[in-house]
Design a protein that fits this description.
With 464 residues, the protein is an alpha+beta fold. It has 14 helices and 21 strands. The protein folds into three domains: 264 residues, no CATH class; 95 residues, Rossmann fold (3-Layer(aba) Sandwich), CATH 3.40.50; 61 residues, Dna Ligase, domain 1.
């Protein structure tokens, strides 16, 4: 909010004035009211492997994160460039593999990667799009320096929090909205529906039938699954509700089978079809993948899309963008050491206390080392892991992430944050202004993931 410390940055003027008129007790009451609203809505999540198996609320902060219109225009241009390049990369990898033949990406990094799905080789996908719903995690290190921390091209989550955060803020602080021209986010479900409809199989008569495939109510993101299905007017289904009948994917109903044309899946590749992937899966549908290859149903996001958000591939994204767009990246990567390279591994082992080390397939803040806050024993444990399996890790410098004013127990204090804009790719690229701001609620913490105690904020993109 204060930038370099010389005064309040222009985008925050109205919020700073508002904060100056608020009593701390009133803000605390508003925070309690917001928590009550979230509990009534039922917007909770579960942490896998936790001894406490109860559903939890993600902490919500009532002070919004502000992005100016000019900042957003630059971000949006960079994000669109990136998602187009990522989809071009996926199409190439599963067809001619020209980027490998050009020597821009090592072949072994693709073919030996657990996220690569060889069954997708040569499969024609509608409009050539593999990842239709993408979350790009962005961090800021100064007043103008945005970096992409990672790409989420499989089944990115969190959009329901973006929408509920906005609804809660509009209900609680209408006077604050009156002081600012804030870009809307509530059109996301409508844009998601348009995107899903645009990639339906060809030759359909009438509007396509869309279903959202969920693992079920015990999944940590089940609230989001049911929320999005309801908002779109789509069917919410589990694998047991579906079957291959008469050569098509059909949903079992009391009136008989009903054909499904687009399946927005929220389960991992391995569980989609027990006849092709994991034979013990009860979450998917036997025969689904054959229908997909035949063009009789569209799966969103496509199987095999994880090859583009693999953290080992991440370090090659700038080259990937140049290769497919002919232009330099608008948004830069965080400098990354790929531990499969001998020189990079040597540097990482020598500088572990200074670096953040991540598993290439890790997510949710798990399987990572934050060197500056780690104990000597934790560092040594990671040193052994790196030496035993270096190709499983990447490392990055510890960034001085930007902070935003946040309501904590002691009052208003700075906390580190990131941003996950959600991008929809189909017949066009549709982007919601803003996204989900995730905030580390503990002082000094750089880990914003909800599973690690992080919270969320409403993200305001100001309009000109």
């Amino acid at each position: 909010m204060y930038g370099s410390g010389e005064g309040v940055r222009p985008p925050y003027h109205a919020v700073a004035e508002w904060l100056g008129t608020q009593a701390l007790g009133d803000l605390r009451q508003k925070l309690a009211d917001a928590e009550t609203m979230f509990r009534r809505t039922g917007i909770t999540f579960a942490v896998y492997g936790s001894e406490d198996t109860s559903e939890r609320l993600i902490p919500f902060d009532i002070i919004p994160r502000i992005i100016s219109a000019a900042e957003w225009r630059k971000l949006a241009a960079g994000i669109e460039q990136r998602v187009r390049a990522l989809n071009a990369f996926m199409f190439d990898i599963y067809h001619r593999q020209e980027i490998i033949r050009a020597g821009k990406v090592p072949e072994e990094l693709i073919v030996s990667n657990s996220a690569f799905v060889p069954e997708m080789m040569g499969v024609s996908v509608p409009l050539g799009i593999y990842s239709h719903i993408i979350g790009i995690d962005i961090v800021r290190t100064g007043e103008s320096d945005f970096f992409v921390l990672e790409d989420n091209t499989r089944t990115p989550s969190g959009v329901s929090y973006m929408l509920e955060n906005r609804e809660t803020m509009m209900h609680m602080f209408p006077d604050l909205f009156a002081r600012n021209r804030v870009a809307p986010v509530e059109n996301y479900p409508e844009n998601l529906l348009k995107t899903l409809e645009s990639v339906a199989p060809t030759g359909l008569k009438g509007e396509p039938t869309i279903a959202l495939l969920t693992p079920g109510q015990f999944n940590s993101a089940y609230y989001e699954h049911s929320f999005l299905a309801d908002q779109m007017g789509a069917e919410l289904v589990e694998g047991r509700d579906l079957a291959v009948i008469d050569g098509y994917l059909q949903m079992k109903t009391t009136q008989g089978p009903r054909r499904i044309d687009v399946l927005y899946r929220r389960i991992d590749d391995d569980f989609l079809d027990p006849l092709v992937f994991r034979s013990d899966s009860v979450l998917g549908v036997p025969g689904l993948f054959d229908l997909y290859r035949a063009g009789r149903v569209t799966i969103v996001n496509a199987p095999g899309g994880g090859i583009a958000d693999d953290k080992a591939i991440y370090s090659y994204i700038p080259e990937i963008i140049k290769f497919y767009t002919g232009r330099a990246p608008i948004l830069q990567n965080v400098p990354t050491y790929n531990c499969r390279k001998a020189d990079d591994l040597k540097y990482v082992l020598e500088h572990l206390p200074e670096l953040v080390v991540k598993e290439v397939h890790g997510s949710g803040g798990y399987g990572m080392l934050v060197g500056p806050t780690a104990s000597s024993s934790e560092i040594e444990v990671f040193r052994a892991k790196l030496m035993a399996n270096p190709s499983n890790y990447i490392a990055q410098p510890t960034l001085a992430l930007s902070t935003s004013p946040t309501m904590v127990e002691a009052g208003v204090a700075p906390r580190h944050l990131d941003l996950r804009p959600f991008v929809l790719v189909g017949d066009e690229v549709r982007m919601t202004a803003g996204g989900l701001t995730r905030v580390a609620m503990r002082a000094g913490s750089l880990v914003v993931n909800s599973s690690q105690g992080g919270g969320t904020k409403d993200t305001w993109v100001l309009q000109d």
